[in-house]
# Entry
Amino acid sequence: MKKRITALLAAAAAALMLTGCGDSNPAYLKNITASDYVELCDYSNIPITVAAETKVTDDMVDNYVNYTLSSDASYQEVTDHDTVENGDTVNIDYTGTKDGEKFDGGSATGYDLVIGSGSFIDGFEDGLIGHKVGETVELNLTFPDDYSNTDLAGQDVVFTVTINKIEQLVTPELTDEWVAEQDISNVSTVDEYKDYVRNQLQTYYDDDYRTREEEAIADYLIDNCTFKQDPPEEMVRRYYDNMVQAYSTQISQNYGMDLDTYTQMMGLDSDSSESSADSSTESSAESSSDAAAASSESTSDAVSASAEASESSDGAVTEDASTAATTVTSEEISSTTATESSDSASEASSALDASDAAGGVTIGSALASDSSESSSEAASIASSDSSTDSSEASSSSSESSSEGSSEETEKIYQWIMDDAEKIAKRYIILQAIADKEGLNLSTRELKQQLSNEAAQEGYSSLDDYLKDEDASNAYREYLMSQNVMDWLLDHATVTDEASDSSSSDASSEASTEASTEASTEASTEASSASAAESSAESSAESSSASN
# Structure
């Protein structure tokens, strides 16, 4: 949770430097004398320590390629046997009745069920083994006594199940034909595609390394410079308003909810406050392309976040959160995969596949989309372990939300305000250095840069762009900050976070994280969609049980 909050807030902070606030009287750096606010420290040779640069390996390329191939996998009907066996994925229609009457959440059509996954109550999956495609089977079953839906707990029911087909998940092979279908400019062969992947991943990691260097520089300046007076209130408010707007937009796009609802649902803690404050402040100086990359990264994190969130609460985060619930066994598989490696795959994904990530579609959700019609109904036949755990989680979440929602909302807004003040201080420091070292752009340079930005942003002329005071002045500040950062990094002493054998370990770990996530997620999801869906499914059961 901490990472995704940090990522979203970082993306918001990055974006705010390139957007307007709409304030009628904003305070920009050009309107103040920076040295009136801050006494600079010695910045002539700033010592910083950052994690070693990541060099993309063949394994990282191969694993990402495999990850991408698995995301293009699809279910195909099995032709070598028509009798259900343990481990098969079967597409079924089913109707549940109690005392001859249908009960809520007990019916579905076109639902894909992995036999042996333990997704449904005891006897359901085993009852289909040995039956043939096209058969309709009646299963006389009993819900567990501790089932979360008290109307069904301990009750005898009958499920009428029709076996539509037996399926398997087929992953495409890496061929020139598949590469051509990806429609990547100047990439049409396997070798060209691998080169493309390598270059994109390396660019991503190089940009990330630069960002970490800038973050370390910014931290040093904030810690060692002395402020004579607080930043102008108008300046802090401008950053705050833009950050709230950008953060709210990210939440809306990724989760389909407003900031207050998201905050209450997440149940933020004090640790994430500190992390988000640092990250958002440090990331706010990224360029428009860097801001887009940050947004892509946060979006990728948000995809995995939606799965984690649905695992813990009310199933309102994604459409997949309404699919059938699974047991702790399947949850553990998914949890291990997602927790240990989701961050790195999200990063690799955002580097090459930001548009897919922005759509909020994981491999598991894409594969499960065909069965969305049955999603909400399937939840009520989850196993007793899952339903009990999910019910308890839902109850706990509900109580927490009702008791502390306003407090959590106040927290996030206060964190954003704290971040806004820190950002203001950072830019005042950079402006003071620019003034002292003569690093401000010349009138000619500034005009050229603003003209380029105006054209890129779709303004009809530079004059029209300059009329948008918020946008043009924010871009001026960004250009200044990059000039100063370049100068500071040229004069800084940079040390790798790990040295000797430790450095090798760090580099290896970075490589392994990116490649392991891709291969692990690919293999897990390729074998069964249930693993990828399990966290979302547990949440759905809770939602169904509460009806």
